[in-house]
Amino acid sequence: MALSALVIADRYSGASMGHKMNAADADLGVAKGIIVVPPGSHSIGAQVVFSEDRTVVLGLGSYATSDDTYGSFIFHNRCRIVGHGWGTVINEKALTGNNAYKAVFRDHGSWTGGVAPGDNDGVEDVYFADFQIAGNPLSDFDSATPTLGLGNSRRVTIERVYLNKTRSIGINIGGTSNTGHHASDVWIKDCRFENVASQNISNVNGRRIHVVNNTLVAAGQAGGPGATYIDFEPNIATDWCDAYEISGNIIDARGAANAGNGILVQRGGATAGTVGGGVVANNVVYGGDFGFTTAAQYISTGILISGHNGVSVIGNKVRSAGQRGIWIDTCERVSAIGNTMSQCGGGGVEAMTISSSTNCTIKDNDLLFYTGANQGSALNLIVESGTSDYNIFQGNEVNSFSGQRGAIVLVGANSREFDNTFDGVKAKCFPYTDSAIAGSSGLLMKLDATTPGNVAFHTTADTKDDVIGVLLGAPSTGYNVALVVLIGDGSVTVPVKSDGTGTIGIGAAIQPSTTVNGHVKAGATNRIGRNAGASVAASLDAICTAMLN
Questions:
Q1: Residue 435 and residue 404 in contact, taking contact as beta carbons nearer than 8 Å
Q2: Which residues does 317 contact at the CB level (< 8 Å), separation at least 6?
Q3: Domain ranges in the chain?
Q4: Which segments of 11-123 are extended strands (E)?
Q5: Which candidate among 308, 395, 493, 496 keeps its CA 20 to 30 Å from the CA of 512?
Q6: What is the spatial distance between Cα 222 and Cα 230, in angstroms, rounded to a whole number?
Q7: pLDDT tens digits, 187-208
Q8: DSSP annotation of 443
Q9: Which strand (E) or helix (H) includes residue 108?
């Protein structure tokens, strides 16, 4: 096998190291070649274009970029660009005003052609490793052009690269698919992102994208555009976002500025057929401080999956998210298994939400809260909402805190829960709480009567299978309404007591009118409640005891 030619960049003439690197590249011609830049402080006074089949070795030192046309370094097919560790520092150029071309590295496909740059085909078989890109505090912010842009490239690996306080999107995969092009088979691994001003890693049009074992710290900068750490978000109907892997990453949002969510995977403008089928596994998200009396949250949701079907959300750990730890929204066939959410939920929002999603499996998840933690109006709940149905909730553990009981709340007539544990007790009915939950009128069980002496619940439709519902709040002065969700599974003896009007008295559970497939069917007059002077807690304790025994 023929050896590649090797050239030393500073042996060529040129006004700057950028000019010398271009001269070295031209001298190699069409043959495979290696360009070596020796250690030192270098000025890149011209845009550098690497031809196909180039290996570029950047020595220790600094590289001050200055060109602002599309990108400082343009790479072509089969380029390898490697440094000598994070002591090889490429300094972002200082640009002001509305400049759309802030990229430090950009693929050749996005750079040239008669169509819009993002519509072009990308390049293939490219490798980056072992250097740092440092932001310039004198540069204006940008939220459109990435610092390292891959466009619609294929078979790309980026590893051990450090983006440090850069002023735009960090690494972006994918251009647009207007002309039928897509990115694919990209690996971003073992990289570090610190105070990156906008999205740290984004995928707008890519298949088989792997984001693995990266560390992302304190995203966003004061006055910047705002940031999500990992953002998979296609823009138009033909964009791809499927068969992805987001695993083993550590997101530490403590002290962040303008940060939004931890991991965001959403359909965006794409169609259902071009998104989904990914894995989000074994990531750790620190959403805020760990302090119990002065805890602050810097991200809203730890992991949000929206509009993607067939996704596995497995073994993730989210701590101190300002609102939800995990949110599954408008999805089908999502498996959320073995995740831990600690000190999540706030602002009246529950720790885990399954909204308008169907045929999902929510299994073996732990919701934890630490005694004395400062979480305001947190709700340590798993809540099913909207049009959700046919979901399974099994083996989850929900713990209470500060007098508030954890719970699972279902709205789907065909959703089921079993073998879940609340405060160490495995239950067939759900614990209750005297705390309020916002928007309870949108859940399945609603308040029926608020007149003194008679407080009752009833289901919203006669056709609902099982008694599944929730109400939290105080309907009138002196009447504290508790939360209760009951499931009759055909094997539990449920006491029935009626006062003749359909209202259930103390110590009773439900008044079934019939059963469907062995399950209790609740009608509009089948109610759970209490009479004047009775204890809500005593009634619900009796109900839960009946369901458990």
A1: yes
A2: 283, 284, 285, 339, 340, 341, 342
A3: 445-549
A4: 33-37, 40-44, 48-49, 54-58, 61-65, 73-75, 80-82, 88-91, 105-107
A5: 395
A6: 19
A7: 999 999 999 988 999 999 999 9
A8: S
A9: helix 108-111
Cβ-contact 331, 391 below 8 angstroms: no
Nearest to 135 by CA among 56, 219, 212, 18: 219
Give pLDDT tens digits for 218-249.
888 888 888 899 999 998 899 999 999 999 99
Q: pTM for this structure?
A: 0.78
Helical segments of 94-211, H only: 108-111
Residue with tokens 């490219």: 126
Are 522 and 467 a contacting pair, CB within 8 Å?
yes
- DSSP state letter for 288: B
Separation CA 381–CA 367 (nearest Å): 8
Q: How far, in Å, CA of 198 to CA of 257, rounded?
A: 10
What is the SS3 assignment for 486? strand
Q: Are 156 and 108 spatial neighbours (Cβ–Cβ below 8 Å)? A: no
The string of DSSP codes covering 76-104 is -TT-EEE-SSTTEEEEPP---SS-S---S
Tokens (6 digits) for 207: 């298949």
Cβ neighbours of residue 26 under 8 Å, at least 6 residues apart? none
pLDDT digits (tens, 9 = 90+) for 281-291: 999 999 887 65
List pLDDT tens digits, range 153-194: 999 999 999 999 998 889 999 988 888 889 999 999 999 999
- The confidence score (pLDDT) of residue 325 equals 93
What's the rounded mean pLDDT across residues 273-278? 85
